[in-house]
Amino acid sequence: MPLTGPSRTALGVAVHRAVHQVLDGGHIFADPFAKSILGPDSEGLIAERSSPQHRHMRSFVAVRSRFAQDFLAQAVARGVRQVVVLGAGLDTTALRNPNAAVFEVDHPVTQDWKRERIAGMNPPAGLRFVPVDFEQQNIADGLALAGFDLAAPAFFVWLGVVPYLTRNAIHATLDFAASIPGSEIVFDYSQAPERYPPKQRKLVMALVERVAALGEPFRSYFDPPEMTALLKSKGFGRIEDLGPREIGARYLNRRIQTGRAGGHVVWARR
Ligand SMILES: C[S@@+](CC[C@H](N)C(=O)[O-])C[C@H]1O[C@@H](n2cnc3c(N)ncnc32)[C@H](O)[C@@H]1O
Fold first, then answer.
1. How is the chain split into domains, by residue range?
2. What is this structure's pTM?
3. 17 close to ligand 1 (CB < 6 Angstrom)
4. 8-269: which CATH architecture?
5. Along the chain (270 residues), what's the average pLDDT of each consecutive run of 10 residues?
6. In angstroms, how far is CA 68 from the centroid of its own chain?
7. I need a surface site. Which of 30, 64, 156, 199 has the fewest CB within 10 A?
């Protein structure tokens, strides 16, 4: 099924962040805009996603935003002033960082929808929209047109996007990020479902089927050694890659004894 409207998965993860505020008190990731970005239907959307079956995915979505926010805060403290949110969806980084230049790059149809949502939320002056299809277009041209300084350091946030892209588009995006001096990137990726333990495999297969039915199928999986090698080959010398065990220990107060396959969050710096 081809994608005809705004990304449904973008709405889905935004609802998870809003539910996290309401049910979990935002204890992993506090986002004062998570509910309002959903618009007038927020209460109904939140109610629909509040059942226990969504708890695991909600935690992962909250963790990846928190991971990005923590590294972004360190980058801003070091003086980085350009932030690029790749595949932004309803991400609220721009609203939470009103003093940075934030470039939101997204599929044109999804971006139009986001612009309507954010228009009434007092969007900061530094927010720029860059409509780009990662599979078809060059990010550099769009960003340069929007005023991005190719010679100044930048922080890239790329959450919930890598699994949906082909390896070609992933390489092109990493090449671009690596071409910016002093760049940093935060993203998440998944190992292939067949690598997951049986209980988690069932959950991830349900997700795989759900996103495919929405016209946004998963296209790329990685194992951690392959991801590390890929990032190194692009020139990222410092890498932090957290798998389920490290995520459980750092953010979820959950002890997983052995390393097991699952979703990962990564930070990398040139
Ligand atoms: C699961 S959503 C994640 C949205 C957002 N990053 C977040 O975490 O809330 C996936 C996002 O990737 C974007 N995306 C997927 N494929 C894309 C492509 N080929 N070009 C541009 N954006 C794409 C979608 O438009 C959508 O905004």
1. 8-269
2. 0.97
3. no
4. 3-Layer(aba) Sandwich (3.40)
5. 80 98 98 97 97 95 98 96 98 96 97 96 97 95 96 98 98 98 97 94 95 97 98 98 96 85 97
6. 8
7. 199
